[in-house]
Write a structure and sequence with these properties.
Blueprint (H helix, E strand, L loop, with lengths): L5 H10 L3 H9 L1 H11 L4 E4 L12 H10 L6 E6 L8 H11 L3 E4 L1 H4 L11 H13 L3 E6 L16 H7 L6 E6 L3
Parallel strand pairs: 1-2, 2-3, 3-4, 4-5
Helix pairs in contact: 2-3
């Protein structure tokens, strides 16, 4: 919870009646695993992504999720992230998340403020991320649809921009929210 920007954290607190419980699960893999047991859930993907402008998450989320999932690697699936505009060496960042054992990559266009096909517009780091995911058999989850967080730009969440990615890269790419509409 420490990585959240104050306005994003306040929005979470206001909209989650069980915020204290969620905070406990973020601190304690044991508590979260007990919750999964009570709910009859065998496995969970812990989705994290780098979006410092909108949410506040930096590359630190990758280490956090890797450490958290080590408590039950067969039950907890680590999902980390890379952000093309917040890297000085994208290959080093890719290699780092591979060393951490991250099992899925999240691209959140409305919070990262980019189109998933911006590799066509000179954001070469996206192509490097996609090729590395392809070469290592790591799925990339794309957020499609809207976001209520201040600073998010919903235009980036239109799923049509994944068409280029799907054609150009034979990677596994589940879509988050399936184009959740505005309103």
């Amino acid at each position: 919870m420490e990585l959240f920007k104050p306005h994003a954290l306040e929005l979470m607190k206001r909209n989650r009646a069980n915020f204290d419980e969620i905070s406990e699960y973020c601190r304690s893999p044991k508590a979260f695993l007990q919750y999964l047991d009570r709910c009859g859930v065998d496995r969970a993907a812990l989705i994290n992504y780098v979006a410092p402008e909108v949410i506040g998450f930096t590359n630190e989320v990758n280490q956090f999720v890797a450490d958290y999932c080590r408590h039950a690697p067969k039950r907890l699936i680590s999902c980390g992230s890379l952000h093309p505009r917040h890297t000085t060496n994208i290959m080093a960042d890719v290699e780092h998340i591979l060393r951490l054992g991250i099992r899925m990559i999240k691209i959140h266009p409305p919070h990262q403020l980019l189109f998933p096909n911006d590799y066509l517009n000179g954001v070469n780091e996206l192509e490097i991320i996609y090729r590395a995911a392809e070469a290592n058999g790591i799925p990339i989850m794309f957020h499609t649809g809207t976001s209520i967080f201040p600073g998010a730009r919903n235009k980036y969440g239109d799923p049509i921009y994944l068409d280029d990615v799907a054609v150009d890269f034979p990677i596994k790419n589940p879509d988050g929210h399936g184009g959740r509409p505005c309103g």
